[in-house]
Design a protein that fits this description.
62% helix, globular, binds fe (ii) ion, mainly alpha
Amino acid sequence: MGQMVLYIKTFSMSREDSYELLNEYVKNEALVKHYKMVATAMEGYVKKLKLSDSEIEEWWSAGLLHDLDWEKYPDEHPNYAVTSILPQKGYSNQILDAIKAHATSRTGKVAETSIEKYLFACDELSGFINAVGLIRPNGINDMEASSVSKRLKDKRFAANVSREDIAQGIEMIGIPLSEHITNLIGFFKIEGY
Ligand SMILES: [Fe+2]
Ligand SMILES: [Fe+2]
């Protein structure tokens, strides 16, 4: 009987590689901050879900790179990155699919797997929490979930953040909005945003 060899393909781009790629495509610091926050959110959740080390790296990378082509190729975002940048660098299909699914209207890809759903759920809300932090003297440091919920109801505040996407996101990951906000604030505090 021949021996069966099982190949386990693990994701191999290091965080340094990903940061280097980010620096190549993105100059705007506010954008870079958003990418880092979404990476932090994804890392927080993947660890909470107790997934494997390679999945931790995939979730983090999907977060960091989800808007990679936004600055240079806004009209083609995220299709440009998932066809012309990331596959060539060896990023996995899980990462590519997650990035596609954070922009369903542009890609036609609906979020199905956990990484896809969490990226969708973390993207807009992370941006919103950052916006709330910017108008507070101590930023995210002493932020309560209730102040974020209150601002969400004010449609004029950070009007570009889609409340509909936030609602859809929490439905995908199946936790109440207040819990999702609390989790994200917790992850961001640890990183000191
Ligand atoms: Fe995006
Ligand atoms: Fe984003």
